Amino acid sequence: MIHRAISPYLTQLLQQFPAVTLIGPRQCGKTTLAKTYSPLYFDLEQDSEWMRLDLEWESVLTSTTPVILDEAQERPALFKKLRATIDQDRGRFGKFIILGSVSPHLLKNVSESLAGRVARVSLGPLTLNEYPNMKELWLRGGYPDGLLFPANYAVWHHNYLRSLAERDLPNWGLHAQAKLTEKLFLMLAHCHGQIFNASQLSKSLGITHPTVKSYLEFLEGAFLLRLLPPFAKNIKKRLIKSPKVYWRDSGLLHALLKVSDDKDLLSRPFVGHSWEGFVIEQILGVLEQKGVSYEASFLRTVDGKEIDLVLEFGQTTWAIEIKLSSMENQKFFESLKATAPLIQTQKSILISNVQSSIFKDDRIVANLADFLAYLGQLQNGLSLCAP
Questions:
Q1: Is the pLDDT of residue 346 over 70?
Q2: Phi first, then psi: what are they for 61, rounded to 5°?
Q3: What is the spatial distance between Cα 350 and Cα 59, in angstroms, rounded to a whole number?
Q4: Cross-strand pairs, 247
Q5: What proportion of the chain, given as a percentage, has pLDDT over 90?
Q6: Separation in Å, CA 127 to CA 5, 207, 248, 251, 354
Q7: Residues near 96 by Cβ (< 8 Å), separated by ≥ 6?
């Protein structure tokens, strides 16, 4: 079994809260991880399991290990019951691990019923610090079953997307025919790494502008897409105000775009956008694993100045530029240094495929593996200096 880097943070939360919600996309490994903490597991998508939980509730509560409640958003009635149980013994921590695959529904119930009683943590597909073969991870993506699929990786990914379009997304509330959803998937793959244009998508799909926006917000809530917002603070430049669209898993993106292998990927015109999205997800995934609070955005001015990823940690701001090639690093870094002062950054960072990384207090040029290792030392206090 692949060790998940989020485990220490999850263990810490279970020692501090009566319940922890572990959310993330289907098949990313939530159940496997939760079962390392307890054998007491209930799959609430199954009516028989829901009944078993009800019948065994009193005896279940005497367990000394957490009770794992999988796909909890399927049973809204559960949350009031959980609140009453937790309030009977607020001093007991680590009582429940609540799993969910769709953020909006689960979080609505949590916010209404379990406020102050539950911590939330997000688990995504595997990251490079968990599976250190970058070539495979970038091509195949981080879903464990898709990454380790013994045949053509895309077979698993196409079946995964088909299941979401035909069953899961409609069950969760996305009111669209499966064929329309699959067409939207493909169009969004071609938009990966680009500024979101709702009008263009609505015209191609034959649906309204607001409907397109609602679909994308739903897919983001189901952890399939990331809508990276534009930097929103006032600066002395006019800014692009629409988000960028990224597929959160590179394997799903590559399957949709019919990428056969790593050599094929490197020959495609979208390879730079693919790499950019992959690096962003790796960085944000490691921050989630550490429990570090952050805000992520991108900067693009109307006159063409750009920063791929802006990370804000309270009053501290980092500017990150992402390049697949290590050629012309000096040129790219000089451009970044010229743009970064617009947003008063404390660190300027260039991620590229350099052999040797350079870490200084205010500037970094690093390959992805080294930079993720650097982030692995990060705490919310942001006391990181050059290693």
A1: yes
A2: -70, -15
A3: 55
A4: 225
A5: 69
A6: 9, 36, 12, 13, 19
A7: 18, 19, 20, 66, 67, 68, 69, 82, 86
Residue 340, C-beta contacts closer than 8 angstroms, at least 6 positions apart: 307, 319, 348
Residues 306/342, Cβ–Cβ less than 8 Å: no
Among 270, 279, 380, 334, which Cα is nearest to 12's? 380
Angle, alpha carbons 334-304-248 (nearest 5°): 90
Q: Confidence band (pLDDT; 50, 70, 90) for 241? A: confident
**Interacting residues of 118 by C-beta distance below 8 A, sequence separation 6+:** 17, 18, 19, 20, 21, 98, 110
Q: Pinpoint the alpha helices (H) of 259-360.
A: 262-267, 271-290, 329-339
Predicted structure pTM score: 0.94
Q: What is the pLDDT of residue 244?
A: 96
- Residue 368: closest CA among 250, 259, 252, 225: 250
What values do phi and psi take at 370, rounded to 5?
A: -65, -40
Q: Are 296 and 228 in contact (CB under 8 A)?
A: yes
Residue 360's Cβ-count burial label (10 Å; 0-12, 13-18, 19+) is: exposed
Q: Strands 306-313, 316-322: parallel, antiparallel or unpaired by DSSP?
A: antiparallel
Class of domain 7-122 (CATH, top level): alpha beta
pLDDT at 104 over 80: no
- Residues in the chain, overall count: 387
Mean pLDDT of the chain: 91
pLDDT of residue 232: 83
Geometric angle at alpha carbon 220, from 151 and 342, rounded to 5°:
110
- Report the pLDDT value the prediction gives residue 382, as an integer from 0 to 100: 54
Classified as helix, coil or strand, 381 is coil
Query: How many other β-carbons are positioned within 10 Å of the β-carbon of residue 249?
Result: 28
Angle at 341 between CA 335 and CA 346, to 5 degrees: 105
- Residue 75's identity, in one-letter code, is R
Per-residue confidence band for 274, with pLDDT thresholds at 50, 70 and 90: very high
pLDDT at 305: 87
**Residue type, position 104, single letter:** P
Q: Give the Cα separation of 268 and 306 in Å (integer).
A: 23
- Domain layout of the chain by residue ranges: 7-122
- The closest of 228, 194, 369 to 296, measured between CA atoms, is 228
Cβ neighbours of 110 (radius 10 Å): 22
